[in-house]
């Protein structure tokens, strides 16, 4: 009997709810750490942070708006469930990240600490989102699609986008803040690249 089949884990509604909630909280906390130290990250979260620094716009609303064009693409390529879960997750992260400014003030946090903690916390949160068929929208949706279609690791795809974003960030942020931001993004993408692998979900 051929047992070389792809294994797609199925989660109950309760399992999805708790998994996505925990992952959204981790992602929001990571973004809050970055913002407290004046750092950015990659993906649409990084775009939203950079825009908020440059214009004074509210991060939560900007993050929500930046992701809107990507949901149709996610729906067409990954299905309605993935698109809906991503929409719910991005909305939750937008609200939580805004609330944490008041609920969890972090004055004086060192950018190195913020970068390292962000990379670990948000990296694990992103893995949780992927595990439960969701994402933080935008670039992570494209990264997952490329991983499925071409076998490219999602973490490395995101890293390529991040490099471009950080080069643009040099026109807005001091060099040291961009370098610390790059450290946080590198840690996050390394965690995703090392742990989010299709071959680990294969039954042999």
Sheet with most strands: strand arrangement: 1-2
- Order of SSEs, N→C? EHHHHHHHHHE
Rounded mean pLDDT is 86
Poorly predicted ranges: 1-8
How far is it from the N-terminal to the C-terminal residue, by CA?
11 Å
Look at the helices and sheets and give the structural class.
mainly alpha
Number of strands: 2
Measured on Cα atoms, how large is the radius of gyration?
Answer: 17 Å
Q: Helix coverage percent of residues? A: over 70%
| Largest beta-sheet characterization | 2 strands, antiparallel
Q: Tell me, what's the shape?
A: globular
Whole-number count of domains = 1
SS element count, helices: 9
Strand content: under 5%
InterPro entries: UPF0750_membrane, YitT
Pfam family, one: YitT_membrane
Main location: membrane
Organism: Gemmobacter caeni
Describe the structure.
The protein has 204 residues and is mostly helical. It has one domain. Helix content is 74%, strand content 2%. A two-stranded antiparallel sheet has the order 1-2. The termini are close together. 45% of the residues are buried. Residues 1-8 have low confidence and may be disordered.
Tags for this entry?
single chain, 204 residues, mainly alpha, two-stranded antiparallel ribbon, globular, disordered N terminus
């Amino acid at each position: 009997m051929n047992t070389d089949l792809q294994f797609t884990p199925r989660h109950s509604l309760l399992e999805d709810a708790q998994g996505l909630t925990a992952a959204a909280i981790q992602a929001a906390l990571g973004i809050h750490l970055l913002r407290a130290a004046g750092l950015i990250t990659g993906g649409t979260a990084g775009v939203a942070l950079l825009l908020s620094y440059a214009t004074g716009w509210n991060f939560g609303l900007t993050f929500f708006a930046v992701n809107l064009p990507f949901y149709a693409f996610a729906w067409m390529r990954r299905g309605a469930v993935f698109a809906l879960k991503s929409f719910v997750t991005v909305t939750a992260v937008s609200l939580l990240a805004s609330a944490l400014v008041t609920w969890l003030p972090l004055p004086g946090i060192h950018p190195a600490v913020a970068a390292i903690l962000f990379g670990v916390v948000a990296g694990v949160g992103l893995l949780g989102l992927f595990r439960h068929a969701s994402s933080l929208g935008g670039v992570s949706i494209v990264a997952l699609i490329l991983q499925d279609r071409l076998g490219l690791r999602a973490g490395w795809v995101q890293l390529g986008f991040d490099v471009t974003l950080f080069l643009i960030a040099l026109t807005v942020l001091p060099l040291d803040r961009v370098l610390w931001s790059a450290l946080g993004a590198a840690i996050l993408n390394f965690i995703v690249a090392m742990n989010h692998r299709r071959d680990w979900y294969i039954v042999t």
